[in-house]
Amino acid sequence: MDDLIRASSLANFIGLVAQQGGDGEQILSDCGINPEWAGNHDKFIRYTALSQAVHVASSSAGGSDFPIRLAQAQGADILGPVAVLARNAVSIGEGIDDVARYLHTYSPAVRVSLRRNLPCPQFRFEIVLRSLVGRDSMVELSLGIALELLRLLIDPSFVPERTGFAHAQICHSSVYREAFGSPIEFEADGNFFALPSAILEEPTRGADAVSRRLVAQFLTPIAAYESVVDQVADFVQRLLPLNQATLVHVASAMSTHPRTLQRQMVKEGSTFSATLDGVRRKMALRLAGEGFSASQISSSLGYSEQSCYTRACWRWFGETPLNLASRSAGRR
To answer: pTM score, two decimals?
Structure first.
């Protein structure tokens, strides 16, 4: 499923809305996002929910320039390991290639590409979701983050040769001029930064080979799983809090047919239901050990009713959720 993004994408959202007299927590709650997850790189939220929240903030307290100001407040750090890998690349071009290769670990809803065969190479961005409320705002937020990333790789004062937006102008011209510092083209053939012709071969600032190797080792297992069952388990864990950990949704995320996926899992000695049950069991044990309540655990496991979790707890551990919590608390 493409409709995912890490909750680090909401870093500084609540605070920035508050500066404009709004209630960022309420906006997130209304959009189906747990406000406590805002800024947490380990949590996933729906990309469509993020877009709706940014759209609401822009339409109310934030103003039309809210996405650009949010990008400036967040910086490239919200990309997590992807940004660390890119900033430690040998060259600027290699760093951009790193982002294009691993950005799906941050969000499968967006893509970055590098067009080298142009007089001015283009860093291009797109949102792959077809139907999206607030798409234009999300593009401006994303290009704002992309510029922060390029400045991290190149120089804090870097300015692109030209900036292109596929949509019509939203903010006053002065907002774009101050944020991007370059000529702006609206209703262009895509969303992009035109880069200086020779910049791709230039070295990145302060690159460290050891750091790059360590981050690459971390990201590679995310991009390439050892088995289909491992990949299914990973997607199940991401989708459970969204109540979308079904065979259909997981198969869609893996770009395959549900029946094909089920056959592949059987060949590896498992089934979707068994994998789902195993992931839930591990999550229940971990969350109970971290002190979460039975209702919170039930919700995190994607159960519609707490009684479902109670029955599962008896089946897994031979005890009630309360006893499991008490036993786990004794081990902390």
So the answer is: 0.72
